[in-house]
Design a protein that fits this description.
Keywords: Membrane, Transmembrane, Transmembrane helix, Transport. The protein has 435 residues and is mainly alpha-helical. Helices cover 78% and strands 0% of the residues.
């Protein structure tokens, strides 16, 4: 009996779960940062290095760069089948960590797995999604991206009385989820889009009618413009988002003078709002309304949210903190990251789609790594308000670039988009980089 093909939604959900373990690992680290700092006696430099090389930043950047190239060369399934094993290995080092070296190495290994998996999974989702519902399917990854942190933070609040042991248990639950996802992925088929493209490419290469893909293809013509657009709308925005994801509990406790439990509760609330925003705004409207307008509205909310921290300290009441938490939650659910995931998968041809996404994700996380390293130093030397001015500027620049450059891809197949951007000959493999 032939094995039944999984439904498009099952493929999407299994692929999207990488966002759960990715974002979960970032927030688990954030939720326990003060506990680990106290346990290991980390100074500002060690704290910055941990943030810079975590799955929120540097190591994920390298993982995406490597994983993206492997995805296009060996297939989406090949990468996302094995990278979760790397993730689990890193998680074990964190769970059983007894010194700074174990914690740091664990973070780096987890980040490598996360970076590779994000590219493979997001590409797979876009290629398997129906054209008329692509935003809805791609949004499922964003949904999981918010669900993971919400669960992690709820567990953190529930296990708060156990101290560092509670944080180790939170990391441990991510191992169980990753192991289940890895098992489910063994039964998933390869992307049909990649298989067809690879077959055509192999024939053309054998006939001497096409050159192999290299990174140089991303740095000229329409590809360079697309890379610059995606970096502008996503990488710059991510400087704010990575701060929110990794450092906000620390800021709530040390700037807002809130308790550890309250800061975690606020983060839970924000991620719950992100889940609702993803489902009702991005997944509900992304295929039905003008995407440029949707991007502008959700991006503007983020600028307004960060601007609140520029008000005089006495104005920062709990109501304002709640408002900031809600605004950040809406944007993180239906804002720049959801659009980046969608547009990056749509705007490049199949044969180097993952390579392009890996490169832009590399730039994004590398920039986040530099920012994560600098942020605590800026906080200590110049003060929190100076850092906030920079984050308001980052959010505004991302808003402007994304609004101006938003592509019209709604309802179109990936083949249609490719033909419009590169021409029919390119779609048939008779491309500009032929001999």
């Amino acid at each position: 009996m032939d094995k039944q093909e999984p439904s498009a939604w099952k493929k999407t959900i299994i692929a999207a779960m990488t966002s759960y373990v990715d974002a979960g690992s970032i927030v688990a680290g954030a939720a326990g940062l003060s506990l680990w700092q106290s346990y290991l006696g980390m100074n500002g430099m060690q704290l910055g290095l941990l943030g810079a090389l975590s799955s929120n930043a540097g190591s994920a950047a390298v993982g995406a760069l490597i994983g993206g190239r492997l995805c296009d060369k060996y297939g989406r399934k090949f990468v996302y089948t094995y990278d979760l094993l790397v993730y689990i290995l890193g998680m074990l080092l964190i769970v059983f960590g007894v010194n700074y070296a174990m914690l740091l190495i664990g973070y780096i290994i987890v980040g490598l797995g996360v970076g590779a998996d994000v590219v493979a999974s997001w590409t797979m989702i876009a290629e398997e999604a129906p054209a008329e519902n692509r935003a809805r399917h791609c949004g499922s990854a964003q949904f999981a991206w918010a669900l993971g942190p919400a669960v992690v933070l709820l567990l953190s609040v529930f296990l708060n009385h156990l101290g560092l042991l509670g944080n180790r248990l939170v990391f441990g639950h991510l191992i169980l989820v990753a192991a289940w996802v890895w098992y489910q992925r063994l039964q998933m088929p390869e992307s049909k889009d990649w298989q067809e493209t690879k077959k055509k490419e192999t024939e053309l290469l054998a006939a001497g009618r096409m050159q192999k893909v290299s990174y140089s293809v991303l740095f000229s013509g329409i590809n360079l413009k697309t890379v610059l657009f995606l970096v502008g709308m996503y990488s710059i925005w991510n400087l704010c988002a990575s701060t929110w994801g990794f450092f906000m509990p620390y800021i709530f406790e040390h700037v807002g003078n809130l308790s550890h439990a309250m800061s975690n509760a606020l983060q839970v609330g924000s991620f719950v709002i992100s889940i609702l925003a993803t489902f009702f705004i991005f997944m509900g409207l992304g295929d039905r309304v003008n995407r440029r307008l949707l991007y502008f509205i959700v991006g503007s909310i983020y600028v307004a949210g960060w601007s609140m921290w520029l008000l005089p300290p006495e104005s920062m009441t709990m109501a304002m903190v709640f408002a900031f938490t809600a605004f950040a939650g809406i944007n993180n659910g239906a804002g720049q990251q959801a659009f980046y995931q969608l547009w990056c998968s749509e705007l490049f041809p199949s044969r180097y789609r993952a390579t392009a996404q890996g490169f832009t994700f590399f730039v994004t996380r590398f920039a986040a790594a530099a920012w994560a390293f600098a942020f605590p130093i800026i906080m200590e030397s110049l003060g929190f308000r100076y850092a906030v001015v920079l984050m308001v500027a980052f959010a505004a620049v991302s808003l402007i670039i994304g609004t101006i450059g938003a592509p019209d891809t709604s309802g179109k197949t990936l083949e249609q988009i490719e033909e419009e951007r590169y021409g029919t000959k390119y779609s048939q493999g008779i491309s500009a980089n032929m001999r």
